[in-house]
Design brief:
Length: 346
């Protein structure tokens, strides 16, 4: 059994971690921290967890949590995780950070987009970007993993086969993405109120969204050249789910059948990535509550563009499910442990 703690357990991603880890046969949850709900059972904060976890949330100093745990998940807003990760590493505790602090190899990029000073620059270059489909072996060896963002997970998985093989023009990429309201977190915000977002759809963060440089960093790594994208997120009036519709121009003629085979080969053996049959376009509902990413594509012969649709659950494959997938790799467990479930439908 691996002793695991969660820092920031009462946000949506923290609660999703508790849901998944409560079913993990090789994990013992030993600490859940929360400033807001200290002294309350996690099942009182999230009644859906009744019968699955009896742990009490604690407003613990980090040092006390690090004495209990062998692996710690950090589910805090940006700017708070990096110093904690550095202290955990000093104590020999493995870290999976669900925030943005450790995702960027260039500290200046992080500081420019997130408008805060980086709390542990020395970790920025050594933390492993935790997208298992691309970095599996490095994750197995890692002591610190930077869990990807939700939009980047959907976009990168949708584009990886095309960019890795040099099949599309890196300057032509447009990512039109839509997310459910849970992506904004549990904190009360005007834009997340029911009457503000229900029966409505709107873009936000246009040309300024902080996931843009993360997407570009990882796509550039895949393409072995600098990649700049047009990325526009939208708010969907649903609880969970991300749909990314991606457009890119081919650099040489390919048939749709050849493109499909490219994706089938690239993701062969991947337990959580599924290419749907021709004409069966993925829906957020089909991955709801699962760690799956479903894809499909079409070739627009008139324009020479390939169109890819990619869906994930933003709280599972886009956050906590992927974090558990990384835990499994880091600890030598079967990768699908506590994650092998289909989406909830209907």
């Amino acid at each position: 059994m691996i002793k695991v703690g969660i820092i920031g357990a009462t946000g949506y991603t923290g609660a999703e971690l508790v849901r998944l880890l409560s079913l993990h046969p090789r994990v013992e949850l030993v600490a859940l921290t929360s400033r807001t709900y200290g002294g309350e059972k996690i099942a009182e904060v999230y009644p859906a967890l009744s019968g699955y976890s009896e742990l009490i949330c604690e407003n613990l100093p980090p040092e006390e949590l690090l004495e209990r745990a062998e692996v710690v998940f950090i589910a805090l807003p940006h700017g708070h995780a990096a110093p904690l990760a550095a202290r955990a590493l000093e104590r020999g505790v493995k870290v999976i950070d669900l925030g943005a602090d450790l995702r960027f190899r260039e500290v200046k990029t992080y500081e420019s987009w997130y408008k805060v000073k980086h709390g542990a620059p020395e970790l920025a270059a050594s933390a492993v970007y935790g997208l298992p489909e691309l970095n599996r072996e490095a994750i197995r060896r890692a002591k610190v993993v930077a869990n990807p963002g939700c939009y980047p997970t959907s976009a990168i998985l949708g584009l990886a086969p095309l960019l890795k093989g040099g099949y599309v023009d890196p300057a032509s990429i447009i990512i039109d993405a839509k997310s459910g309201v849970s992506g904004a977190g549990r904190e009360a915000k005007l834009t997340s109120l029911f009457v503000e977002c229900n029966e409505s759809l709107n873009p936000y963060g246009v040309a300024t969204h902080r996931h843009t440089p993360e997407i570009e960093q990882e796509l550039s790594r895949l393409a072995a050249t600098e990649v700049k994208v047009t990325f526009t997120p939208h708010l969907l009036p649903i609880s969970r789910g991300i749909l990314s519709t991606i457009y890119a121009t081919l650099v040489r003629p390919l048939t749709e059948a050849e493109l499909r085979q490219l994706y089938l080969d690239f993701y062969a053996g991947e337990p959580f990535v599924q290419l749907l049959p021709p004409g069966k376009w993925p829906r957020t509902r089909w991955v709801y509550g699962s760690n799956n990413c479903q894809l499909n594509l079409a070739l627009d012969e008139r324009t020479g563009r390939v169109i890819v649709a990619s869906v994930i659950d933003n709280l599972t494959k886009g956050a906590s499910g992927q974090a558990v997938q990384n835990l499994n790799l880091m600890c030598g467990f079967p990768e699908t442990t506590a994650l092998a479930m289909p989406g909830i439908c209907p």
